[in-house]
Amino acid sequence: MSAMSGPTVADEVLAARVLVVDDEPGNVLLLTRHLQRAGFVHVEGVTDARWALPRFREWRPDIVLLDLAMPYRDGFTVLRDLRSEASGEEFLPVVVLTADTSPDSRLRALREGANDFIVKPFRAEEVLLRVRNLLATRVLHLRLQEHNEQLARLVAERTRDLDAERQFLQAVLDCLEEGIVACDADGRLRFANPAAARLGVQPATGTTLPGLVPGQLHACDGSALSPDEDPLRRAFTGYRVVGQELLVRGPGDDPRTVVANGRPIVSDPGDRLGAVVALQDVTDRRRVEEELRRRVLHDQLTGLPNRVLFLDRLGVALARAERDHRPLAVLLLNVDHFAGINDTLGHEAGDALLTALAERIRTALRPGDSGARFAGDEFAVLCEPPVGESTARRIAERIRSALSVPVEVSGRWITPELSIGIAVQRDAGRSAEEVLQDAHAAVFHAKQRGGGRYEIFESSQRQQLLERLDVEAALRHALAEGQLRLYYQPTVDLRTGEVVGAEALVRWQRPGEGLLSPLRFIPIAEQTGLIARVGQWVLRAACTQLALWQQTPLLGDGFTLSVNLSAREVGTAGLVELVDDVLAGTKADPRRLCLEITETALVHDPDRAAATLRALRERGLRIAVDDFGTGQSSLTYLQRFPIGVLKVDRSFVASMVTNRNDAEIVAAVIDLGRRLDLVTVAEGVETDQQAAALVALGCQLAQGYYFSAAVPAERLAAQLGRAGNAG
Ligand code: C2E
Ligand code: CA
Ligand code: CA
Fold this sequence. Notes:
By secondary structure, the chain is an alpha/beta fold. About 45% of the residues lie in helices and about 20% in strands. It is built from 26 helices and 27 strands. The strands form five sheets. An eight-stranded mixed beta barrel has the order 19-20-22-23-24-25-26-27, surrounded by four helices. Strand 10 (about 255-265) and strand 11 (about 270-280) form a beta hairpin. It starts with 8 loop residues before the first helix and ends in an 8-residue tail after the last helix. The structure holds ligand C2E and calcium ion (CA) (2 copies). One calcium ion binds near residues 564 and 626.
């Protein structure tokens, strides 16, 4: 026996407590002596039956030797007492000592709970044998009990541990963001965590093979999923499912995009235990990715594709069109006077207009065509081939009329006009960029021709575009280098021939190019915004000259100097302040200053224009409407503005002698001008017939080569017979 093991049964038997209950002290003594001699250490005797129970309670013996016949309390009664006192004990041996050998007495003792008998007078060996046997049984009983208790404790502990572990694992699975679904080896669905339930994915029951609920999972394109594509079923049949993207349609909710990963569950020796699938909800991530992708390829303001995406699509379309030998068309749209709208109404209004236009473009597109917004006020349309020239024209017409409908922006009604450039591509080998450049040149051409129209690209336009870019760059330089000049064309009283005023006309002394006409650079300056600086320079230079002239006595009292303002300048906030500043700086007489504006300057934002013009009128300036007859030409409309002078466009004057219709228009304009108390000036008078006809119609003033072209200040002064110029 190893040192580790406990006492032997025999040891424990001898260590047991033995209680002898007998009213005869001799018996007690005898038994005690026998037992002690046999090696028992704890032996006690009680000779009064009434003391048996209290002593038992106190001492808790392991065995009791009990005499049946005793005074006060007989053995049966004591036996019953002991049994009820020790009811919880596993095995408490009680041996009865009796002289009565009748079977009745024995039977009764056994019934009352005795374990054995010893008949008096007893033999020592027999007593010892029985006591030892019974005690050995008790020891074994106690050991077994102890063992069982230990086992029960162990089981309880294990169960507690397992419970804690299970709860922990459950909590882990519960708080996973991923949905986890698993089935066992029989294909029974055993597990779905809350995340899976949240996705609306719950195991289908009653299926032989596992599968997620039919009708809830869909392929990415929304089509129904066949059972073979069900990730759990695939994992169960032994496949590894990697990154399978699915759509989950829970009840009522938006569909969620999930990525499924799954595999069979296999034990170490390789037995299949089932299958598990993890479902990761990637809806939000996909949404963000989608949004980022959209942002890179779309215009923020309008949501239309941007230049990058458009070029990409154009590249694809070009390749396809080339392969199929089908023509393709690109339309580039530019909003006329957009910069002006931005200047006058502010950027928010500009944005609102662009948004409205984008919406109209969207609705005007045919299926298959795609629209885009480039920078600023530039839109593009890619027409699904085949689109030849005539179709492209029709599309351009349709888009133009769809877009040129009044739109309310910041409480004002604006009628957007568009310049459209069309590039039709039939030859192979041109890149998307090149096609766009062509369309760009065509837009520019449309702008050059006054806007509100479309042009089809021709190679000559490319040259014009290059020129424009060249002019723009050089013009910035010109302002800084002082290359601009003012020329003056006299205004003549038709009846007396007297010079009553002059119009300042700007020229550009461009190194290497000579004297450039304003027609070559003013439109470009207007488009690029440089016009503000050109205009300031013109106004200041003209007023400086006027201040000099107004001191020379031979200029008549009524002599007025006219300065042209572009439509964009009229809209600019700060025009009145600029005029004040220039007048104060130059000491020019405001009553001798006339500003020429075109009708287009008035129609964009009539209220604002009226306010500006009134402010100028209050300062004594005169306002002339230039090129009258070529624009909106509504005299009633003009009445809203404080206008003093009408300049009849030179196109009418040029043809009035030969064209009756034009002659009648000039007559009507002069007549109406007279009734509205406006001074009429005929432009572009080149012949004496024209001059005579105008006199006959009652026109007061005229300008034109017939009298004089625009000349430098000193030449005008010389024509007047007097010196005096700005130097
Ligand atoms: P506009 O205001 O109608 O100016 C009259 C134009 O007709 C001038 O051309 C003038 O030289 C030209 N002209 C004068 N008499 C005759 C004639 O008998 N026959 C013909 N065929 N033409 C004649 P210019 O100087 O080339 O100016 C062209 C346009 O440029 C002007 O038209 C005006 O709209 C613009 N412009 C000129 N100077 C300025 C300026 O300082 N500021 C702004 N914003 N625009 C200007
Ligand atoms: Ca003019
Ligand atoms: Ca004019």
